[in-house]
Amino acid sequence: MGQMEAKTRWTGGLGFEAESRGLKFMMDSRAEAGGQNLGPTPKEALLASICACSGMDVVSILKKMRLDLQSCDVDAQTETTDSHPAIFTLVRAQYMIKGSNIKPEQAIKAVNLSMTKYCGVTAMVCPTSPVQYEIFLNGEKIHDGKADFTEALNEGK
Questions:
Q1: What is the CATH number of domain 42-155?
Q2: What is the pLDDT of residues 86-142, one digit of tens each?
Q3: Max intra-chain CA distance, the chain
Q4: Domain residues of the chain, as ranges?
Q5: CB within 8 Å of 138: residues ≥ 6 apart
Q6: In 3D, which of 33, 30, 27 has the Cα closest to residue 11?
Q7: Between 104-113 and 42-64, two packed helices, what is the crossing angle to 10 degrees?
Q8: What pTM was computed for the model?
Q9: CA 28/CA 33 separation, integer angstroms
């Protein structure tokens, strides 16, 4: 098991400087919520973390297949519940993959592996907030799916 550590330091208002592995970044609230808009909110950072974590998986898998990956963009949208704790209602992600020799089944396999086995951030989010995704290869939609880590998490027990 890997260990992680994060530290945060209040910088005034609703802003916090976060640090992990010596790397620093700001998190803040929107101005209309009392912040100074100096960085993403923690929930925005979590949504971006879903995209980046899964994107890293997809890039690694396609590179291991020795494919000509030219780009891999992952976008996501969500809304939060009105009650507290305000959580994501449904995360909708889009994978925009480009490459000259990538076949649809290879792109689908890479994303499905991320969304069922490898993406730890998504695995932590989906028990309370479902994650649905679409895969686009070279501008054409090729697949819809839903994250499901049931089998992978049961294997670890």
A1: 3.30.300.20
A2: 999 999 999 999 999 999 999 999 999 999 999 999 999 999 999 999 999 999 999
A3: 51
A4: 1-39, 42-155
A5: 97, 98, 99, 102
A6: 27
A7: 130
A8: 0.94
A9: 10
